[in-house]
Amino acid sequence: MPIRIPDSLPATSVLEGENIFVMTERRALHQDIRPLNLLILNLMPTKIVTETQLLRKLSNTPLQVNVQLLQTESHTPQNTDLAHLQSFYTTFDQVRDQQFDGMIITGAPVENLEFEEVDYWGELCEIMDWTRSHVHSTLHICWGAQAGLYHHYGIEKRTLPHKLSGIYEHTIIRKRSPLFRGFDDRFYAPHSRYTEVTMEQLLKKPELEILALSHEAGVFGVKSSDNRRFFIFAHPEYDDDTLAQEYFRDVKRGLNPRVPAHYFPGDNPSLSPVVTWRSAGQLLYTNWLNYYVYQTTPYDLSEISMESSQI
Fold first, then answer.
1. What is the C-alpha to C-alpha distance for residues 249 and 240, in angstroms, rounded to an integer?
2. What is the model's pLDDT at position 5?
3. Which of 9, 161, 190, 296 is the most buried (most CB within 10 A)?
4. What is the pLDDT of residue 301?
């Protein structure tokens, strides 16, 4: 939340120079406040786990957020009870005439398929096109980030020699970005993917800005220059045991997976992992929601298509 201070306080210019959001008394008196409307397109097969992880991150804020859960109509999930989907999820046809302050598009375990081979690809493209005029800021995660970069900017994903899985150290490139407010210069985050988008590909697109990098895991995140689209290749929302569950699942399937890097103490899967990414993950979601949704979204959501945020 912004801090409210007297109009002429000398600290105002100093804080604003440090990119800290301050609100003068005059602006506070004229500010309209309403709940934020947030849409989550959950493409993960373990929908209840994913929705819980995301809602945990989004709830740690004084902001009032109305959340709607969205599923695809062109794909029927096999791992979530139909009653849960009917009770708590909506479809695109039911929301296409609404506007939202923010949206999250999750990852999905379909990286080894070409985008056009995914059975709901056409519907996803329609939704991503719709966000341009109906969503103020959209956050894409993991495969969702790769799909968004491919659809909006024509950037192809590249297959890795083996699955990238583990907890990796990252360095912030845009240190003054509000997205990293409160972060240490180096932070940790889980990755779990078979494909990547490289820095060299992204640098060819001047309308995109690289946010953070890992010397082992590659690009952590990138955003559009107008702050309307964010693409995060990691999973900052993951629980402490998520990578372990994925690893043991793949062991059971006979896939002979590599032990997630920097995760189990001494790379021993019989030991419980030590969490090193929770605080950074919380800050990322809180900062996105605060600085790129709450602080910049128009009060009248019908104006979204004309708005552009420049934090």
1. 16
2. 47
3. 190
4. 85
What is the spatial distance between Cα 249 and Cα 24, in angstroms, rounded to a whole number? 53
Measured CA to CA, the distance from residue 296 to residue 281 in angstroms comes to: 22
> Got the DSSP string for 143-175?
HHHHHHHHHHH-PPPEEEEEEEEEEEEEEESST
Are 102 and 135 a contacting pair, CB within 8 Å?
Answer: yes
In 9-59, alpha helices (H): 11-17, 25-29, 47-59
Which residues of the chain have a pLDDT value below 50?
1, 3, 5
CB count within 10 Å of CB 285 equals: 22
* Structural domains in the chain, sorted by start: 1-31 (no CATH), 33-306 (3.40.50.880)
Q: Any idea which residue has 């990238």 for tokens?
A: 164
Burial class (CB in 10 A: 0-12, 13-18, 19+), 47: buried
Helix, strand, coil percentages for the chain (3-state, nearest 5): 35, 25, 40
The catalytic residue among 51, 111, 196, 237 is 237
Neighbours of 174 (CB within 10 A): 14
Distance CA 127, CA 141 (A): 15
Q: How far apart are CA 92 and CA 90, in angstroms?
A: 7
Q: What does the alpha-carbon distance between residue 39 and residue 49 come to, in Å, rounded to a whole number?
A: 17
Per-residue pLDDT tens over the stretch 36-70: 999 999 999 888 889 899 998 988 777 888 899 99
State the catalytic residue, choosing from 142, 170, 191, 246. Answer: 142
- Residue 125: active-site member: no
**What is this structure's pTM?**
0.89
Q: Strand pairing of 208-214 and 158-172?
A: antiparallel
CB 230 within 8 A of CB 177: no
**Is 123 an annotated catalytic residue?**
no
